[in-house]
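so my prof wants the structure for this chain in the C-alpha cells format not the other one, which i didnt know existed until like an hour ago. anyway here's the sequence
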Amino acid sequence: MVLRGRAGHNTWVLSLKPHSVAVSLNDTTVAAWDRGGRLYSMVRDGATWRRGLSGEVLEKRQDGPAHRRRRLLPEAADRVVDEAASFAVAVRADMVSPAWVWDSPLESVVLREADALLDLNGRFDAGAARRDAERFARLYRPVGILPPDQYLSLVLQATEGCSFNTCTFCDLYHDRYRVRSPEEFKAHVGSVLDYLGESVHLRSRGIFLGSANALAVPMSTLVPVFETLVEEVDAIRRGVFAFVDGFTGTRKTAGDYRLLGHLGLRRVYVGLESGHDPLLAFARKPGRAADAIDTVRCIKTAGVQVGVIVMTGLGGTRFAAAHLVDTVAALNAMDLGAGDLLYFSDLVEVPGTPYPALAAAADILPLDADARQTQQRAIRAGLRFQGPPPQMATYDVGEFIY
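here's what i got, hopefully its the right format
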C-alpha cells in the first residue's frame, strides 16, 4: 500500500509492504526498514547505503562515470543509522501536525499501522543498531558469502567454517570447520527466528543452508537438518539452497540429492572456478574439473537445479588461454539449462591471502578489468546448450553483506 501526504513544502510517500516499509521525502531521500524495524537501506544525494544484520554498512556512490564502493567504519555506520532514524521521526512528526494533508482518505487502521511502524523505525538508532549487531554475532558465525540471488534468503548455519579452506584466493572463512549436531541446529533455528521476529519477512526468499560447504555433511546428519527446516521454518516453501564443492559433491548419489530435493533442496551452487586442472592446482583448490562436472550432472539427474561459479582473471596472463578453453569445455559438459544459473566472478586479490605472493613469484601478471570482461565474453561465446540456456550474470563479491 502506498500512502502520500504533505506538510508545508514536504511531500512524503510511505510504501507499506508485507516485508518492509519505505519512506520517501520530496523524491530526494528514501529509507527502508524491514518489518522488525531494522534499517535496510537509505538513498540520498547520489549515495546508497545498505545495512546488514551483522551491522556492516556498505556505501555506494555514483560520481559521473565513476563508481565507488566502501564498507563504512563503525562511527560512519552509526551516522547513517542515526540519520535514518531521525528521518522516520520527522515524517511521524509531520503526520500528526495540523499542516499534514493526505492525498486520499485513509482508514484509521492503516494510519495506526503506519504510525506504529514509523515509531519502530525511529527507535532503531545507532545504539539500538549496535546492540542488535551484538546479538546477531552471538547467534551466527561470520557469513562469508552468498550467491547474488540469495542475498535476501534466511541463512541458517548447519556448519561453521569451510571443510577444506585451502584456496589461495579466499579470505572468507576463518573459523575451524565444525558440523552442528541435529539438536544444536534445531536450537540455532529457534534462536534465529526469535531474534529476527517480524524481520524474517524481508529474508524469506528461501533458506540458505550455511556455511561454505554445507552439503558436505553426511546424509545421516543432513537429513535431520532438512527435517528441522520442514518443521520449523515457513520459508521452506520457497526452497533450500546451499554450496557444495565439486570434489565433495561426488560423495553423494543422485538418490541422495533426490531425497534432499523431496525435503526442499532447490538449487546447489558449485564453485568450478576453472576447468583447467593445473590452474586449480596452482590455486590449491582441491579436486579436478571432472569432479565438478560429475557433481553437477548428478545433481541435475536428481531434478535439482544448479548454480555454477566461474572466476574470471584467475591465473592472470599465464593461464588465460588454457583457463578459457578448458572452462568452456567443462561448462559444455555439464548440460546446464533453464532454471540453472551461471555466475562469472572476477578474481579479487585480497591482501594477506597467499594468491598475490604466489602469482608474483610465478611472474603472473593480473588481467585488468577490460581483459576480465573479454575473458567472460569469450567463455560465453563458446558455450553450447541443448535447450534453453541457463541464466548468466556477473557475481560481484564486493556487493555482499548479510
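also thought this was worth mentioning. The chain has a mean pLDDT of 94.
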